[in-house]
Amino acid sequence: MTTTTRLIGAPINRIEGAEKVRGAAVYAAEHPADQPVYAYPLQSEIAAGRVTGIDTVAAMSEPGVVAVLTHENAPRLASTRDAELAILQSPEIGFRGQFVGAVLAESPEVARRAARLVRISCVAREHDVELHPARTDLVIPEQVNGGFETDTVEGDVDGALASAEVVVDATYTTPQEYNNPLEPHATIAMWTDGDLTLHDSTQGVHWVRETIAALFGLDQQQVHVVCPHVGGGFGSKGLPHAHVVLAAMAARLVEPRPVKLVLTRQQMFSVVGYRTGTVQRVRLGSDSAGHLTAISHDVVEQTSRIKEFAEQTAVPTRIMYAAPNRRTTHRLVELDAPVPSWMRAPGECPGMFALEVAMDEMAIACGLDPVEFHIRNEPETDPATGRPFSSRNLVACLREGARRFGWTDRDPTPRSGRSGPWLVGTGVAASTYPVFAMPGSRATIQARPDGRYRVLIGAADIGTGAWTALTQIAADALDVEMSDVQLSIGDTDLPYASGAGGSTGITCWGSAIVDAARQLRAQLPASAPIPDEGVEVTGSIPDNPYAGQMSMHSFGAQFAEVRVHVDTGEVRVPRMLGIFAAGRIINAKTARSQLLGGMTMGLSMALHEQSHVDPRFGHVVNHDLAEYHIATNADVGEIEVDWIDEDDPYVNPMGAKGIGELGIVGTAAAIANAAHHATGIRVRDLPITLDRFC
Ligand code: MOS
């Protein structure tokens, strides 16, 4: 194939880029709708209790108000098992901000204004919204997210810690953090003859269809979900949240008119998930030469009382380092709080913060360079399963990163670097992310008599570059030019695709596309003329014979320079370097953007992101971008991203691993470790704010 080397890996511009910058790309709420009704949610103002009365008289008398949806007139759902989604089925309230209704009006302004006129009476019961790790009623989840075991133990951790020459025993905390995609969550819902059409901002149209069909007791074919473009999701649009149900219920009330619902930034802080807060105790034992003898990682984190969410925080610890004695545990605190959900690298991101700061603490305690300490504890096979890694190039990333960052000149002494009023330090941490395989995706390729190829798959582009990378994969597999391939995604009328989650999009959808292309080429060689009626084939993800045999993960090494002002404690990050190993890179430009974006979000986590919950009322007080701080351009210095060539023939037909989430894993630890090197002060609780140094 002549095009392979040219297309795969090439830094191709986004094929939908011009459409996006011209404003021609249509996002969910922008989709034209005929005579839409606008919905504005009513939300609970207590954290726990029940609604005793809803007075809608004043709201209904406002000109332009069409209806008020409440638990009294809401459609009954076929399934109420998922208490996050089964809204308005009873007067019960499980958390502050939970939907208790919606005002429907002829304009969004009228709906919003009238919502303030609805009088909701409630009786409250006692609530608890604070993550106390010492609470005595901790819940043991059956399994943590992703189907992983809750606890693992191998060897005698306590014995090994008791006899270890060097021990690190520290507790790390990460706060509740919030996804803030540029495009807020938005849904247009419309019923036609009992069928439901949704224009929804989502990471997976088919996942929305499955969930909504089950809730409303519909056949899947009765639910049509459309979403060609998404302005970011980061996990918060991975699964449908309650606003999709609210929009569909509201549309039932005004059928056949469509209902538009766009969440405000503030509403997003209670109804679309968040990264659970964690309290993590890490204990490491080592011999004096820096060989780990024990690794223990115990996690306490929060879930909502109405629905269990068990973040897999200690799961990455199971595969990272060699040590004969290892243990991980997860426990949950049930709170009268909104339901946590996925946020970029759920599990890996907070878990690796704790582990990689502990690794830095242990390296220092052993008198070793942290890069050398990591390398010394590199496992030969996956410590959790004993299986070989399909490829693992953490050491290569560390070495290449150290070389390029100028690590070898580093004086390890804390507080030894100084530039004017700034204390200067550098830190390192490892990144990792699993190669998940989401089942079920299929892709159809139609060869048309005009020599062009249509590729159809219900995939999503959440801003990652999937439109472009999938077109590259198809063109490469068909051995044609990209301009000969016309891709369609983001619609349940297209073949089933799993959602853009777990960094699986390109690898899973791409595998189905490659399968379809190979079938097509078996029938119709590239040199053969295409028959008048065209040719159509559908491919699926081939079984991976190595799936149960090998451990599949991507890795990386992140280096950070931190400056802390000696008088004010102000923390700056002028320089970061990430070197990654993630199999074959499909598009060098969009891949670099993903990794750069991940590291930027990691910087944001390290220095800024934190919610403040008012324990009296149960809401996040800083629930907007004025007060929930995220990194802006002024916070980001120079970030360099690169990868090493990694040939992995085992993961999938492209040899590619996911890159969406890898970049955020380890960043906060690298920055915390650099801040320690700069100041001699160890910050174990994120975010690293200036008051920690004064
Ligand atoms: Mo990701 S947090 O699986 O969108």
Explain how this protein is built:
The protein is an alpha+beta fold and 694 residues long. The chain has 3 domains: 4-26 and 438-540, 2-Layer Sandwich (Aldehyde Oxidoreductase, domain 4), CATH 3.30.365.10; 31-126 and 182-232 and 238-271, Aldehyde oxidase/xanthine dehydrogenase, a/b hammerhead (Aldehyde Oxidoreductase, domain 3, Alpha-Beta Complex), CATH 3.90.1170; 143-177 and 275-436 and 549-693, 2-Layer Sandwich (Aldehyde Oxidoreductase, domain 4), CATH 3.30.365.10. α10 (348-365) packs across α11 (370-376) and α10 runs parallel beside α16 (667-679). The protein is globular, with a radius of gyration of 26 Å. The mean pLDDT is 97. The structure holds dioxothiomolybdenum(VI) ion (MOS). Dioxothiomolybdenum(VI) ion (MOS) is lined by residues 203, 233-235, 238, 342-344, 346, 501-502, 661. It holds the Pfam family MoCoBD_1.
**Total DSSP helices:** 16
What Rg is obtained from the alpha carbons, in whole angstroms?
Answer: 26 Å
Lateral arrangement of strands in the main beta sheet: 3-5-1-14-11-12-13
Spatial separation of the terminal alpha carbons: 62 Å
CATH-assigned fold name of the largest domain: Aldehyde Oxidoreductase, domain 4
Give the proportion of residues in helices.
10-25%
The name of the CATH architecture of the largest domain is 2-Layer Sandwich
Organism: Saccharopolyspora thermophila
GO molecular function, one term: iron ion binding
Protein name: Xanthine dehydrogenase
Keywords: Molybdenum, Oxidoreductase
